[in-house]
Amino acid sequence: MKLKLRSAEVTISYLFICLTALCIILGAFQNYLYCLLAVILHETGHLILICLLGGPPDKIKISLFEITVSDSRRQQRSVFQNFLIIFFGPFANFICFIFLYLLYLIFSSEIFLSLAFANISVCLFNLLPVLSLDGGQMLYLLLSRRFSDAASEKAVNIITFIFIFPLAALGFLLLFNSRYNFSLLLICIYLILSLIMKNNRYY
């Protein structure tokens, strides 16, 4: 499904729509909505900086595994500007976490606590030093200031796989011991699929 948001083309995957419908049917829509709002806020952080540093993006794609922002102007920006764009996604989640947690302390509402937890989870998850996440992208930009692009890519690839394999092993161990907790394993599957879908593209 395609929409037009000013000059940007927005594509929404039908698999994403099916997942939303499935969560409604299974009664998990509330938690799904909290996570979705945190992800939208995260991408809004990126988009604000993109617009401030050169104009709106070309395309926005909402798929089953990620929200992809196509920004053809990134090659024209400095390393520092691109770093700010990437950093502002997790930063937006962190600021929102602080605000929502303060609201929870004031009003003692579980909704604020759930939204705060969703935001800090998205923030910390995206800061992991994995190629397809913001943490891996920022690490690449930092390395590229001192080393060649090829050496920086190789270093981030190595760090990515060093990080994912123990995490996957821990996920299998957690599933084996608990017999039902497969959350960590799902995270590893997501990371592997996002790596395949990104096809080693840096921000």
Radius of gyration: 18 Å
How much helicity do the residues have? 55-70%
Instruction: Specify the number of helices.
Output: 7
User: What separation lies between the terminal Cα atoms?
Assistant: 24 Å
What does it look like?
It is built from seven helices and four strands; from the N terminus they run E-E-H-H-E-E-H-H-H-H-H. Helices cover 68% and strands 8% of the residues. The model has no long low-confidence stretch (mean pLDDT 83). The chain has 203 residues and is of the alpha+beta class. Helix 3 (79-107) runs antiparallel to helix 4 (110-126), helix 5 packs antiparallel against helix 6 (149-178) and helix 6 runs antiparallel to helix 7 (183-198). Strands 1-2-3-4 form a four-stranded mixed β-sheet. A hairpin with a 4-residue loop joins strand 3 (59-62) and strand 4 (67-70).
Which terms summarize this structure?
203 residues; alpha+beta; four-stranded mixed beta sheet; 4 strands; 68% helix
List the helices and strands and how they pair.
Elements: E1 2-5, E2 8-12, H1 14-25, H2 29-52, E3 59-62, E4 67-70, H3 79-107, H4 110-126, H5 134-144, H6 149-178, H7 183-198
Parallel strand pairs: 2-3
Antiparallel strand pairs: 1-2, 3-4
Short description:
Helix content is 68%, strand content 8%. With 203 residues, the chain is of the alpha+beta class.
